[in-house]
What we know:
The chain is an all-alpha fold. It has helices at 9-47, 64-71, 73-104, 111-118, 126-136, 143-150, 165-190, 195-202, 207-235, 239-244, 256-265, 270-297; strands at residues 50-51, 59-60.
Amino acid sequence: MSMTVTPAAPRAGFLARRRRSYRLFIAPALVVIGAVIVFPWLFTLWMSVFDWKIGSAAHFVGLENYETLLVNRRFIEAVVHTFYFTALAVVVPLLLGTAAAMIFHREFPFRGVLRGVFIMPMMATPVAVALVWTMMFHPQQGVLNYLLSLVGLPPSLWVYSPTLVIPSLVMVEVWHWTPLVMLIVLGGLAALPTEPYESARLDGATEWQLFRFITLPLVAPFLVVAAVIRTIDALKTFDTIYVITGGGPGTASETINLYLYLQAFAFYNIGTASAVVVVFFVIVLALALLLLHVREKTKWS
């Protein structure tokens, strides 16, 4: 008795048509990614190996732009300023945001109203915030020096002092973005289980011990997320610094972003500016990989 075998060709043809339809669906996304991400990066890499100023012909110089940056004192100072600003603008909001989250996690009268007031700064645009703080930093007419005089302290130069300019700019970042850290940590606190706290209190644990050995380890993944967000935001900060100081006094607050802006749009050194972009990308990529590694280590088991 012979058996009839159904050919598999129609099924294979159907799968082939399905694969072609999938390619048609993803084609627009690939085109957009290529036009918006891949091509600009390739063009930036291409420009970084040329000595090119707007209005003149481009000359191939190889890695000379990168070699110049490595010995350029102003660029090295800009890198140091960027790391200094980023470190303060990440650590201080993390500490204050965690403390604020611990306070607002407790029950007390008007907690909702005060929480709403606390998060209002992050709703303002960076330029508006910078303009307000520029007036507050004024040595003679600023409100900050007036507040110092009320407690008997001498006036400060704030952003007009080379040694105080970056800490002063960090004050603006702290005021602006500490509420964001507070919201992230507050969400983590709301998701914590209550059983470990009840057991620890039965064993006589103090409030500090509860925070140190239970709250902090459990909320660590949320702190890492907040640190990643703040690090990315602090590294790319431009508008606040540009509006308040423009990189001054002198170059005391000039970060990589401001140095890049001046090279591209003030001095028209497109080749040098492109090399700065590539170096900055490498720095950001290295920090991102480090933070992702830390985030993997702080995941709950």
